[in-house]
Amino acid sequence: MQASRGMQAFRDVVSILIVIVFMFPLFWWGLSSIKPYTAIFNKDGPVYFDFQPTGQNYAVTLLGQSRIAENLESGGTFGAGGGSSYDSRQTILQSILIAVGSTALTIVLSTLASYALSRLPMRGKQHFIFWILSQRFMPPIAVVIPIMFMFRDMQLLDTITGLILAHTLINIPIAVLLLKSFFDDVPKDVDEAAMIDGATRFQTFRRIVLPMVKGGIAATAVLCFIFSWTEFLLSLYLTTSIRTLPVKISTFVTSTGTEWGFITALGTSAIVPSFIFILLVQKHLVRGLTLGSLKD
Amino acid sequence: MATVTVRDVVKKYGELQVVHGINLAIGEGSFVVLLGPSGCGKSTLLRMIAGLEPISGGQVLIGDRVVNDVHPKDRNIAMVFQNYALYAHMTVRQNMSFSLELRNAPKAEIDKKVAWAASVLNLEPYLERYPKQLSGGQRQRVAMGRAIVRNPEVFLFDEPLSNLDAKLRVQMRTEIKELHQRLKTTTVYVTHDQIEAMTMADVIVIMRNGHIEQVGSPLEVYDRPENLFVAEFIGSPSMNLIPGKIDLEAGAPRFVSSGGTPIALAARPGLTHGQPVVLGIRPEHTHIDATGELSSTVAVVEPTGPETHVYFAIDGKDLCAVTRERTTIAPGAPLRLRLDTDQIHIFDQATGRVVR
Fold first, then answer.
1. What number is the ipTM of this complex?
2. What is the domain extent for residue A153?
3. Region at A292 (left for phi over 0; alpha for psi -120 to 50; beta for the rest)
4. CATH number at residue B148
5. Beta-carbon contacts of residue A215 (< 8 Å; ≥ 6 apart)
6. Which of B114, B142, B95, B47 is nearest to A212 (CA)?
7. Is residue B13 part of a domain?
8. For chain B, which terminus, N or C, has the lower number of CB atoms within 10 Å?
């Protein structure tokens, strides 16, 4: 059906409105991060573009300048309070390490597991798969205290390794389940053809099936990365000196006030690594990698 | 090249037995077709020879070696699958060289063999393409190329042509047969298409419900079916079958249909008076002849070009006559028919076995 011109215009307007509604928080976030302190808190209502943009918030959180120095430069428009705990360079590094580490570990473990679950015979397989998924039903808050005690005994508290393990633990069920469905989409005939061609089970997995589910692995990796990047609860309980970004940002709510400038600056910066990661895997995020393997 | 021997092979899925003690000897270099309706166990048998299904009982030998517990990769066989099962992320060249690479063959040898296979199968222009850039027939040829580069002892084909359109199927049929005549590799080919079986096979193995019904050359199974199932399954249009009884007391032996129509028979020692039997006669041995002893009415006329199928009924059984002559006969017209007496098959009703 061909929509009339008026109808088409109406649809365009509606979709643009919807996009504006959903993009506004992100826009406001980014905008606030370049506002001076006085423009964030304005007694006459919100300030949109009527301010002198500043990089001060970024300078403090990303470059580690002290706020006192910033205040001296800007003539005291930079809010009260001092201290150097707003420097987040180390936090970003640690967050990247933890997210990349747990994503890599999750992918390695769950591709192996889900290939096995997809291909090998196993008694009670359905129950086992359900059990794996059921791990995800449980809210992390229910287990965070026990995990904390276990981590303490294993010397994993406040270590990057510990957080990588914790995030992997939460990610594995969903990754196994997702990847299994991708492996299930690759016909078993392909495995059989490879084995008749002379491949062992592992060679079949490594050289034939794995490349065929590349797209699925990329999609799963994105999900795992984003989870780890934004995870708050476990990171909060299991660390004291190591801070991931969400935990660090939460410390900007202080007894002397909420540092919206730093929160928005760090929040906006935090989008960038996820964005880069997604760009990196995006070229693998194509459907139909098994296209041509089969009849049609 | 090698022989393949199947001894008392049984396949069970839990309590369900699907292959019941099959024995089969496949000669070196022969082209054997396993033919049967779906669910007859032919693919299962092929997969047991390939090592893709565990064998529940009996033995499979390739050459003199019992291969029951040998991994498929060590059986030196090659298989072509119904859906091709190509490696989608590899080019045609990589698809074909994969098995050689796994065997650590030297680069020069791989190149030589892939080039040879490509020339045999007319795939030279497509070596750097991916499977998704190929047509169905080309993909099928890649699957065959993947099989022949290794020079295996046995080729296994699992309904390789059933996904192709009719014209391509006929073409590939000829190509596979040519390939076999050229390479002389022992071949086991599974199909449910009797034309494929008849045209390609040296030996046809007709299977039903996990049993072998008959083994023989294409013309043997066509001309001398051992039982009703084979008689009905082979041939298109299929054999005319009329149930009735044997009458030996009227002098010359004759068959009397359940509706009372008598048909003269040649003498054969196996007959007993009153025996309930089924008379079988191929449509091409059923002639439209004004002097014929049977009479009926034309129901449907199907011209196919080279021949015309004329359908009619005798005692309520729908039957067919095939004539190669142009006929002006029309539905509803009266019809007289003559049967070639020496081409009549008699099957025992109780056992289904042929009586000779």
1. 0.84
2. 89-282
3. left
4. 3.40.50.300
5. A182, A284, A285, A286, A287, A289
6. B95
7. yes
8. C
Cα–Cα distance, B278 to B255 (Å, whole number): 9
Q: Is there a single domain that holds both residue A120 and residue A59?
A: no
- Name chain A contacts of B130, Cβ cutoff 8 Å: 292
* Surface of B (256-275) touching A: CB under 8 A: none
Answer yes or no: do B131 and B254 share one domain. no
What pLDDT score does A296 carry?
44
Of B173, B200, B227, the domain-final residue: B227
Question: What is the pTM (predicted TM-score) of this model?
Answer: 0.81
Where chain A has pLDDT below 50, the residues are 288-291, 295-296
Query: Which residues from B are below 8 Å from A193, CB to CB?
Result: 79, 81, 85-87, 143, 146
Interface of A with B (CB under 8 A): 187, 189-190, 192-200, 203, 207-208, 211-212, 214, 288-296
Q: What is the pLDDT of residues B324-354, one digit of tens each?
A: 988 888 899 999 999 999 999 999 999 999 9
Looking at the structure of chain A, the number of domains it has is 2
Q: Between chains, do B132 and A291 touch, taking CB under 8 Å as contact?
A: yes
Positions of E strands within chain A = 253-254, 257-258
The list of chain B residues with pLDDT below 50 reads none
Q: What pLDDT, on the 0 to 100 scale, is given for residue A193?
A: 94
Tally of structural domains, chain B: 2
Of A189, A214, A293, the CB nearest to B131: A293
Within a domain: residue A81? no
Size of chain B in residues: 356
CB contact under 8 A, A292 and B139: yes
Token output for B311: 């359908």
